Amino acid sequence: MVQQVTKGIKISVETTFEGSFYRNYKIQYAFGYKITIENQGKDSVQLQSRHWEILDALNNEEIVDGEGVIGKKPVLKPGESHTYTSGCLLTSPFGAMQGYYTMVNFTTTKKFQVNIPTFKLSAPFAIN
After folding, report:
1. Where are the domains of the chain?
2. Residue 51 and residue 115: Cα distance in Å, rounded?
3. Furthest-apart CA pair in the chain: how many Å?
4. Which residues are registered as beta bridge partners of 35?
5. Which pTM value belongs to this model?
6. Alpha-carbon dihedral sign for residues 61, 65, 66, 69
7. Is there a contact between 30 and 20 (Cβ–Cβ < 8 Å)?
8. Hey, which residues does 2 pair with through a beta bridge?
9. Tell me: the pLDDT tens digits for 35-79?
């Protein structure tokens, strides 16, 4: 598990390898990840959007931007957390993801970025 705290918001990430399959005559490696967002600050906040940089071992990079996470824009009061699971496909058995969430502080009405720590994606069969 990797963790990082930015401006009172703790991000924890756990990853899993889900398997591989062929699509359009190319092998795809499926990975899952579970993210917990915990408000350790003193103000209520809301997650507005996400930005992902997904890189595989072949140097293919994919940028993903979007509103919320899995269709939600959770509001977190101090001490609350939100956990969700999602996944990605890579064209190699190794890769990494990193990014940030854009959040708004309800007390100051200001937006701020919360870093998502870089986490590795690796298929267990490919590790020696």
Report:
1. 2-126
2. 10
3. 52
4. 13, 84
5. 0.93
6. positive
7. yes
8. 13
9. 999 999 999 999 999 999 999 998 899 999 999 999 999 999 999
State how far Cα 38 lies from the chain centre: 13
Neighbour-count burial of 125, counting CB atoms closer than 10 A to its CB (0-12 exposed, 13-18 middle, 19+ buried) = exposed
Which tokens is 68 given? 């919320």
Question: From CA 119, how far away is CA 21, in angstroms rounded?
Answer: 23
Query: Measured between alpha carbons, how far is residue 86 from residues 35, 113, 125 in Å?
Result: 8, 20, 22
Mean pLDDT, range 84-109, rounded to an integer: 96
Return d(Cα 40, Cα 50) in angstroms, integer: 20
CA–CA dist 71, 94 (Å, integer): 27
| Fold that domain 2-126 belongs to in CATH | Immunoglobulin-like (2.60.40)
Cα gap 98→125, rounded to integer Å: 23
Lookup: tokens for 75: 């509001």
Query: Mean pLDDT across the stretch 99-125?
Result: 96
**Terminal CA-to-CA distance of the chain, rounded, Å?**
20
Rounded CA Rg of the chain: 16
Q: Please report the pLDDT score of residue 127 as a whole number.
A: 67
Cα separation, 11 vs 118, whole angstroms: 11
